[in-house]
Predict the structure.
Amino acid sequence: MIKQRGDGRWFVDVEPVKGKRFRKTVRTKAEAQRYESHVRTMFHGAQPWEAPKRDNRSLWELSQRWYDLHGKTLKAGKRRLPLLKHASDSLRVPASQVKPLLYVEYRNNRLESGTHPKTLNNELGFICAVYNKLHELGEVKYSNPLGTVKPLKVEQRELSWLTIPEIEHLVSKTDESPNPHLSMATKVCLSIGSRWGEAERLRASQVRSGVITLSNTKSGKVRSIPISSEFESALRSHFQRYGDLAATLKGFRVALRKSGIQLPRGQASHVLRHTFAAHFVMRGGNILTLQKILGHASINMTLRYAHLAPDHLKEAVSLNPFSTLPRQSPDTKKPC
């Protein structure tokens, strides 16, 4: 629409596409016509403008989409889904409306109800991974809304490990199990520091030339650890008689309970791995070698055992400033 105002100027009101209006006041009618033609040319063939639709999918719906697009490729991708479902059900808002304050309040409630901080940190990492991956793939248009939320500080727990008498006692209890594989899986963990899951399904093909090669590892990386010829012979005899290992963590927990050995909560499945590492360091083993044996991606994980080394921080005795002061015998002290 073009019309002249009372002051002689010309007013242009043009809507080239539905929902997009342009208004302008110019001095002449010819200038108004040129402006109208310019605006219509800019939008020639354009689709009608529409406001972007709000993404009302829940966090659970996004999690399922994440799993279909990416989670299936991860070794533990499926195990993340229950935590993501719980978080989605508790937050009760569309994923696009999850804000840091809302999530922190939800997390504090879970913390007060007894959920361990490490579990909550894992959950936060899983949720952020969903947002980040779907944004990277163009599935969602917004970035991770929880990017500013920091993980909780987790107090490092003292690692438990078994003494030689406790090891002997525990092995004797696994020998009593009706499952012949339980005792051998226990000995594998104690011999190479493997996780229980890496040992419980050990196959004969993984033992060769004095080396156990682990392929079903947590990191997905293959690692090989030497064993003694005596232990290799024992393993081969076991395989010939009973076949590949088929122990269970439940059976190990039963043997541990029968042994009467008390461990901190949450360390039962890793006590054999911790025991290997502790005795390795106490007997003078190199911490970098231990990192390779255990398959730790970061040396910081392995350094948890460093305090057990025979010479750990011994320099504190000889290099402290007090040790450099001249010593005086009691007889040479000046009277008060």
Notes: The beta strands are 2-4, 10-17, 20-26, 207-208, 211-214, 223-226. The mean pLDDT is 88. The first helix runs from residue 29 to 42.
